[in-house]
Amino acid sequence: MVKIQHMKNTLEKRIILFSFIILFLTILASAGMDIVGFRRDYVNALFLRSQSLGTSMKGSIEKVLNLGLDIRDITGISEKCRELVVGNPDIAYCVITDLDGNILFLSNPAFDNFQFNVVIRSFTTNPRQQINLVGQNPAYYDTVTLVKAPDGRSTAQIHIGFKETIISEKVRGMILRSVFILVIFLLVAFSLVVVFVKKSIIQPVSALLQGVKKISEGAVGVRIQEVPVYEFNELAKNINIMSEYLNNRDEEIRNNYQELERTHNELHSSYLKLEHLSQELERSEELYKSLMEDASDAIVVVGDDEIVKMINKMAEEFFGYNARELVGLPLTKMLLLLNIENIPKIHKIFKDASKGMHIAEEMQLVKKGGTLVVARLHANSIKSGTENLVQAIFRDVTKEREILINLEKSAADLVRLNKMKDSFLGLASHELKTPLTVIMGYAELISTDMADRVDNTVLEMVGNISSAASRLDNIIKDMVDVSMIDEKRLQLKMDDVQINRLVEASVKELSFFFSMRKQELVLHLDESIPTIRGDVLRLMQLLSNVLGNAIKFTPDGGQITVATSAKYLLRSKQPVSDGQQMQPVVNIGKEHHLYVEISISDTGIGIDREDQLRIFDKFYEAGNIEEHSSGKVAFKAKGAGLGLSIAKGIVDMHGGEIWVESSGYNPNSDSGSTFHILLPLNPLIGDSTIDYMNLLH
């Protein structure tokens, strides 16, 4: 009885708790939707009212402007703004500003220093009427209406706003009312549910539980009385019928007990047979799972008699034939149906696979419907009981084959284009140099020896020609340098080089450009660094190119820092055999060597991550090509894309390394970039087998 009472209490508690949760969530959801809808409608109403008031004020002002007056000369606008705010309690202010945000008229002097151009969030994109969230503590929803002059130009802005807290106060009142109604309705509904549960569910269940407990204890003659609920009453009738049937069965069981003992031995022998069949069934299930669960590829199982035993769903999709069309066919007939080329070879593959060999072969077949497919076949032998089966896995490699062919073709095209580009670079630089020398010579002759016989306008034009030719000459020189670096024809004149003095000379050469751009130059030169071996002119060209890049991409007033220091690097020497095209992967021998590092940092706009990997490529310019400029050091000017490529070539020929570090491109911050140049103390000229790695700090 205690157990029945416990079950009753548990069921009763669960039903009541479930009912309470459902009622609470339903009412809470309804109230929440009402509150959200009320808030949205109230906000929209305030937006519409602000826009309407702004439009009305705009109409009044534009009528006066049409008379030819300037808006600053109109009187009474501030009084009209105050009347508008007084007549609309929800409106906090009415302010009229010019297009730069300077306040012309306002309803309340408290908003004299309010910043209307600091927008937290914008709610519309209409350029004539905008709604923005402005200000902090408190924030205001600001409706902006543009005032047009008689010629159609915007001349002022009307700001009408209301506090964000007005909406919160309205919503808070709505929430309190909703909570009160929620509590009252929940108590009433929950009380009705509790009464209903107790009378219509718990009491009938208790009666049924008591009757069933007695029957389970052996009193099969017990009858359950009628209960008031129809469904439970029908259940009670069925339990009574079951009780009577159990009573009859109990008698029959007692009579047949002896017969069951006689059949026990027969059941035991049947159990042994069933166990054997169960083992066979497990093997069959393993085979089925290996075919169906790993169905990412088309699988075909062929028996010893070369008859198709089974195919999976992926094979049906792959071949275009369903299982009924293929299962039971001889292997040769299936191969003919799929129009596979060289059927004797495929037939032999299945025979070799049945002998335990694992075969992989690529073939072409035709799906149902005529689609040509390239498939890769993997065949191997599997055992099912005493029978050897061949499992053939077909994988669609059509797209892979097409992709591979396209990649090979693209790679060949890229190699050809790269050779054409290098050939064009050398040819263009060589062919342009001679006529350009003639142009520059004649321009200089006219500007000097013939200046007194030529009109001043012509002299100015000749000067422009000379300037343009000089710039083109510099580009051609860069192209020649790049061509010579690529062809490894650039000869270095090695001398002892004081890096600090070289840096000072390079900075002095560019001092005019630092002054023109009002940029601050900071030098941190380590006087303890040793002298290195290098080509002075080429190293000057290297520093000039990198410093020029820093000047161009640093805003006016920015800072550029050049620092020198000594570092140790791990250098790995690799042998090269005669005729070897690529250096080996394995490093043979490692030694520590002293290197000089030159770092050039700026507070410029930075470099994108992807651009950092390609910035030293020929003709590559980071950013948009539309920003190309002919200025040598103009802000964000683009050049021919050869300066950093030449810098890398010079560093490589000195046996060093150059790379750039930057947090990314951001034109609105001073994230900047840092170029690192490493030069060995005594480079091995022309030795491309030196591998620089792992900077030791």
From TrEMBL:
NCBIfam families: sensory_box. Residues 199-251 form the HAMP domain. It is found in: Cell membrane. Keywords: Cell membrane, Coiled coil, Kinase, Membrane, Phosphoprotein, Transferase, Transmembrane, Transmembrane helix. Residues 284-357 form the PAS domain. Residues 243-294 form a coiled coil. Residues 427-683 form the Histidine kinase domain. It is a multi-pass membrane protein. This is histidine kinase. One of its GO terms (molecular function) is phosphorelay sensor kinase activity. Its main location: membrane. InterPro entries: HAMP_dom (IPR003660), HATPase_C_sf (IPR036890), HATPase_dom (IPR003594), His_kinase_dom (IPR005467), HisK_dim/P_dom (IPR003661), HisK_dim/P_sf (IPR036097), PAS (IPR000014), PAS-like_dom_sf (IPR035965). Its EC number is 2.7.13.3. It comes from Geotalea uraniireducens (strain Rf4). It catalyses: ATP + protein L-histidine = ADP + protein N-phospho-L-histidine. The chain crosses the membrane at residues 15-36, 175-197. GO terms for cellular component: plasma membrane. It comes from the Bacteria.
